[in-house]
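Supplementary material to the annual report.
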Amino acid sequence: MTETLTRTERKATSVPQRRDSRRSNLLSILLWLCALYFVLPLVWLLIASTKDNSDLFSTFGFWFGRGFSLWDNLVSVFTVRDGQFARWGLNTIIYAGVSAIGASLLATMAGYAFAKYKFPGATAMFSVILGAIMIPLTALALPTYLIFNSIHLTNTMWAIIVPSLVSPFGVYLMRVYAADSVPDSLLEAARMDGAGELRIFWQVGIRLLSPGIVTVFLFSLVATWNNYFLPLIMLNSSDLYPLTVGLAQEQSASAAGGGAQALFSTVITGSFISVVPLVIAFLFLQRYWQSGLATGSVKG
Amino acid sequence: MLKATKRATALAASVVVTALTLAGCSSSDNGGSPVPSSSKAGQAEIDKAMNTPTTLTFWTWVSDIDDEVKLFEQKYPQIKVNVENVGQGPDQYQKLRTALKSGNGAPDLAQIEYQHIPSFTITKSLLNLTPYGAGDLKSNYPEWIWNQVSQDGSVYAVPQDSGPMGHLYRSDIMKKAGITSPPKTWDEYAADAKIVKEKTGSYIGDIASNEPVGMVGLLWQAGAQPFGFDGNKTVTIDVNSAEAKKVYSYWQNLIQQDLVSTDPDFNDQWYQGFSNDKYAGWVTAAWGPLFLQGTVKDTAGKWAAAPLPQWNAGDNVSGNWGGSTNAVLSTTKNPIAAYELAKFINTDPASTKLLNTQQNLFPAMNSVLNEASFTDATSDFFGGQKINELFAQISPTVNTKFQWLPFMDYAYSEFNNTVGNAMTNKGDLSAAADQWQDKLVGYAKQQGFTAQQ
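Predicted assembly:
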């Protein structure tokens, strides 16, 4: 249902309007520069993952080297240290997947409640959540570590998943989104028909909110996928590492002095593999992402 | 990028330690492990411990050391070992300190570099291995290595690998410059540097401005005693002694004449420097040859190795750069099994052979250093030279009495801020060393040490 909605919306906006005819060369150039700025590192990563160590250091970065060793690199990524890379990948998927689903669910429920119910302390609680947006996750990592340490949860999967379940920004976004896209009259009608509050939320609210939910899902997915600091301090067991920490560790093996291993091409290819799922997730969920992003900006 | 990440990691982890201290988490320095303090553990005790089902945790960054551990598990089927890689060097130490402070999660054994042993003995975090029979290992090692792991009759770790220093150079570039034999003294090295630069445009080497450990190795060779620690409250700090200043002013002269470069090492630019002939050599350690083979394959066959140039013609002394040990943490519940594991990995003939051939570690033990299959091996990368034999001969020439501070992390980061900075800016290294000295003495006093200069 939502899909058709967005599609019709799109059609509506794609009807030629006056502002479309105004072209700005300056803007085009700026946007192209922006695109280059963001794409170039990826291009470099792609090209570098086809080189072996010596090509990496002796040939031009933005063109292919003398040999084509993408296949060797891939093999090495999945065989170095008994193929721990696959384990790290699986961990990352678990951490990011569970956290993103949990975080979007919690944020949706909280945002919906803030937008649609009046209850004592609502304003105060929402202010606290707004304040929490200002605190970066990194700053909370240390207190979190201390708490988890005292309840002996460090070096477990929970140490990564539990802190990633809360997303203050997600709550804020969902509140704004729910206020706009779930009409009070619809809720009233549902109540008149005798639906309970929970049922209204699951069957009416959630469906109307899905573009917003996808946005929060993507935000949390990316945040947890790329999280480095929290797993770094929480985990001691390489079987639990996500890709970020694992790759950083393989990278540092090159400067180990005695017994150093120069795993550069392996690490680069591993990094490339690790961004592919994110790119795919974005391409698939893009349309929701766009409509979700625009939501907060129109009405606050 | 790597360095920045590392610094961030180190910072983060040190914040954790501080936070734990502030939070007043109880830390037990001496775990309740049964230590037979008076006499050596009897064979009966050892047999009993090795036949009791036990799980040991071993933190190490040496890759694929599981192979050696498997040999141990075959010999002692009751003992299971979890090998964990929690990071290399400083990253692991910070995690270790955090675990020790927080009172849980510390392993039974850990990989620790020689230079960082005092920073763990000062918190009494390492088990004295003498009661478990470690004293018997002494005769297996060159004197300088044994001095690195023992103090006043206590032994705190079992040596694993070492890094006696030598000089690797590109014989083809040297030849192009008309130099047929490697420099035997530092004076010759300086003279050659000039010729190489003029004739070929290459630097004779790179003295990395971010590599305090390499510079300290050169101080070591020059007979300087920059650091000392009595194991208790007194540290000796003398990084600006006459011997040390001789080394600084030597390199300052080469740097200011632009005859050596000061590029930071182990980063892109530095690797490229080896590939594109920017550097004609590398003053490095025994692990250097194998490292180069992995990174600059296309220069294979063009390399050669020689002992370090000497300060006085006819001398034969070297320093050490790198190398590490396996130490048993004092919090372990299984001290006997943990020590036996450390001993097995690093002294069992099959295991030490693997360490050298699989992990490419340069051996610490005399028996491996002198073994024919080790010394006779030739290296194609070095034009068929017997690299192992060369460095095995260098190992006993390392100055024997060299000590460290219990806060080498701080000492190294201040090196980068003072001497390293002066190297980058082609400034006055000796003056920078005076600053380094002041910083270290100030820090030592602030930490409650008595600082001798």
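The CA atoms of residues 33 and 39 of chain A lie 10 Å apart.
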